[in-house]
Request: fold
Amino acid sequence: DAQQARRVLDRIVGYKLSPFLWKKVARGLSAGRVQSVAVRLVCEREKEIQNFVPQEYWTIVATLLKIKNQKSKIKNNEFEAILIKKDEKVIPKLGIKSKKETEEIVKDLKGAEYKVINVEKKEVKRNPLPPFTTSTLQQEAWQRSRWPAKLTMQVAQQLYERGYISYHRSDSLNLSDLSLFAAKKFIIENYGKEYWAGFLRRYKAKGRVQEAHEAIRPTYPDRTPEKLKPQVKLNEKCSRLYDLIWRRFIACQMSQAIFDSTVVDISAGNYIFRATGQILKFDGFLKVYPIKYEETELPFLKINEILKLIKLIPSQHFTQPPPRYTEATLIKVLEQNGIGRPSTYALILSTIQERNYVEKDENKKFRPTEIGIVVNGLLVNHFPEIVDVGFTAGMERDLDEIAKGKIKWVKVCKEFYEPFEENLKQKYQEVSKKEITEKPTEKSCPKCGALLLIRLGKYGKFYACSKFPKCKYTESLEENVLGIKCPKCKKGEITEKRTKKNKIFYGCNQFPKCNFALWDKPTGELCPKCQSLLVKTKRKQIKCSNKECNYRVEK
Reply:
């Protein structure tokens, strides 16, 4: 019943709203119960970035020297400590706001005595991460290999079909007793008893979970990536993903990593600095599943020890806007808000890119396109519940209640459909396509003399004659001119353009008179060997655009 309700609700939104977008914006667009919320998240993050006002703040770091070094085991007795308190009050992140304020503090600190007032040593234990679910596998594959969610699922499908991993569309953290005992046996035999957790570690998922499947794991824990590769012809991607899944599963049953942590507080008049150190004592699960961590060794220090000030380092900083979403962070926020099911995230991210609602910037982070911003604005203003995070999450909770037999699916669908249908009828009358997609200009049509309009189509804005359909003149709207002269016709300029499949390329704005085009972004500089344009590849390599010239700038 829950599956039936999900299908009905998805079709109500998709089948009803998509034709509305075709009529009011452009053909080929679509709306969806989850995809429209994902687009809204990207649009709102972009708005936050544009509206962000950086705030200045300063930090002060002291380089200090341990004078007596007979008990210190490390060669270098210099270490750094950061200013954390003034007059026994914690200095907040934005506490020191200006250069003038910083200079006054530095003046006070130069004549101060630096004395150790507290030394705290303790063991810090770090737990292994749980085994993979669909969404965490997609996130980790992005973080480690920059794989899109769609690619991760395609590779996982191959591994599943060949019987190397359990079912890969799962939001459960459950593991069978058989797999847990097999992992225990493997760890003790290959790494030693001290590397096993000492108990069968079980994980419980938070929130809405369908427990039909296990977590994603290797079918046989003793089938290591090294053993598997020679036995079967696995392609590189399959090998990499299997390695990741295997390591994560084995690590989740291993012992904790143990660090020796030291925190030292140092007084300097009415100021307090803090130095922190951390050394790995026992690697535990890190032996199999390495995670980045920093090791900082401090010299042996004791309370009341006097230190020598080497230098003070004041640094200016500015607060940063929230980052754009990556595939991993967008999946994470969808899951945290209970929107959609992890098994559908790859399809959702793929769809919103194919519809040209979002695109990836040079750092592979999502930004909304013009059409994405317009469609999102239309839905927010006229169908707010469809793109509301809370409403969509509430609907997912209702679907879970249907699965448990607590609510009838027909009731949920009816309660959603009736007000939605009523609102949709009203919006067909209220919303004007011209207001959304047309903007008058003072430019004249070179074909018939009528005024040109800026129109919005599926792939962005363009100039069109106001006498359409009598006059069908159109002209591209060059908003992404790079300021680089076309090397072929010498008249036009290079602009960022898109193919019908929404792929970015760089071409002359005099097209069709000039057909000069490049896939890689030109830098504006000329090749010293052949005088062709230099381009920057996706791998950030600078090379000559002339295929017959082998010039490239070494990194």
Summary: The longest strand covers residues 114-126. The mean pLDDT is 89.
